[in-house]
Design a protein that fits this description.
5 helices; homotetramer; alpha/beta
């Protein structure tokens, strides 16, 4: 299976994004998978177009986007993307949309088509905390997932699409009290498991 | 420096204790440190005597006890042990003391003599979440720390003593919602850093 | 404005539901509001039909549903309902749907039409913790909100609809560690403020 | 029973302290209790002397100190005070002691003599979240409790002493995410119950 694995760059003043730290370390030789990695700017106006163009040109069979959800305890596949941008901080281009539809007149939501529950089960079995998330928020993560799923639904119905949110890395929380984190090695392992589960669909 | 590093066995129905998982993996060849490891039963009546006897026979210059504090987010050196046992679950021998002094007529508390703040600073610098804890609870962890510090204060005033609490391991929380954890590798690294900081006192 | 205010009965083995405790205490004489209260069974197959039938027969201009979201810290208006039932516990009729569409072929989601952000702002100004929620879950709460918003969208486009989630009551958490709660009086006050803000649209 | 009930003033930049908000509203006519209330400055160098002088001059039979523990979920009686000041923010006089003994050469700790477990049980029975705390921190709260218990132990062994920590008020957390709070009415009720339980000793 040809899988496009994307990750956002750092945003909101952070110097690192665990998404790219993990994605960049994922093994390239996973059996049965042709893997392509893509670093995506945390920019509303660019992220979806870049990912969909790359997926289309390459002929990806699945697109798995990865992002940071600071404050979460687990690796959380996202169930759904909703048709709204509502940002509490500006993106990396300075855009801060408030209650703005991603696609005016578009579907109100798209459900991810990755095998989310099988991914959660496989991660837990591997000792990695994971649960299904019912909200990807209303920032660039949700925006990208919406645009990927919209592209798939409208033009590539056979292509799988989904999103995995990662917690903070330990080094990101040393000055934050009571904030959960996950080791980079476990994140990398989680992504490799998610890839394997997806490719076995 | 001759350092005795102790860890509790599993308790409360758990099949694993991150303390011993981490301690058993600590490098034995840390520069300037003669290291001895000791697995300690989670039993009020046995833990302190075993640790102190081992420390005395070997001539330990520092005793660092390690235990699990499920629910914590960080590696937490303990500031103090108080003269009370008050258990919410039985220990591994079935003993569940309630509001019972550890040493009747003993000092109400002993302060740990490890370089706790230097350990916290070194751990954070290494990207490992850590903060000082003001309470080791009133279970076997506090009990052991009290007895170690009492032994040191009364008979070995030059011997350092302290306690490091570790969070759950990731595999321990896969079926618990919103519970923080820490990777085993980071725990091992944290202990090795704490040993190095202690030996540099 | 004619506002139908609904609340679920207790579920999941609980003996009380803060939703009805609060709704039943809301003042009936709020200026400019004709208020009707409705207790709704926590049953997938019944809740939506009952609420919509009541709203239609009475000619409600707004439907505000209230439910419990145990573990939340704040009064949380819901932004959206998604077209999926996925229950972790059975409802009060023993039904536990898994990944089942609420309306097969229906819209993937509906956005609430209450003035959610104005409600949050008014509650905070009144000293009541509140924030917007991006997920009503996938249990009966989301189910009811979906069916209310679907009914409004398809047949009563002028009728407002939305959902407010309430935390646990203090008495519900006395045996749960580290679980937030909110006093009943503050919940009642929150609902009265939400009603006033809604009626001023 | 003659009970002195004290509360700190706001500190750390806050405009309100739930301790005094609650203490000032406690009923004065509780049966069997002569109640005296005292507002105490959040100042290391003044708090203990003021409270002890007041207790001695009046002939208090019990001293119950009340303070804020922002971030806690429950009313938490304190088990113990330890002989150390270690402040993360300056007190209201600008003093920020670091690892400084409260009483050089003094007892390392004093245990509170209030009926803490009976208070917790009575609060829970009344539907108010409560649990015993094993640490009053190392700020002015612990400092005051230490000095009160030291005075009692050394010169008034029959006088009871203890400390109750209160969560934030709801209005204090409207701009903090995921922070628990408690309604003022429940705090007042909690203090009245604690007074009644104490007077029944």
């Amino acid at each position: 299976m040809k899988i496009l694995l994307t990750a956002f760059d750092p945003f909101g003043g952070a110097s690192v994004n665990p998404a790219w730290e993990a994605v960049s370390r994922v093994r390239e030789d996973l059996p049965g998978i042709a893997l392509r990695k893509l670093l995506v700017p945390t920019v509303f106006a660019e992220s979806g177009a870049l990912v969909n163009r790359t997926a289309n040109e390459w002929g990806a069979e699945a697109v798995i986007c990865v992002g940071q959800a600071g404050g979460r305890y687990e690796v959380t596949p996202e169930r759904v993307a909703i048709n709204i941008d509502d940002a509490s901080v500006p993106d990396n281009a300075g855009d801060q949309p408030l209650d703005r539809p991603i696609t005016p007149g578009g579907a109100p939501a798209y459900f991810a088509t990755l095998p989310n529950k099988a991914i959660v089960a496989a991660l837990r079995k591997a000792g990695i905390p994971s649960s299904l998330s019912d909200s990807a928020g209303t920032y660039v993560c949700n925006h990208l997932l919406y645009q990927v799923l919209e592209e798939n639904a409208l033009r590539h119905p056979e292509r799988l699409g989904g999103f995995l949110h990662l917690p903070f890395l330990p080094a990101q929380v040393v000055n934050r009290s009571r904030t959960p984190s996950m080791a980079l090695g476990d994140m990398v392992r989680a992504l490799e498991i998610a890839l394997a589960v997806t490719s076995a669909v």
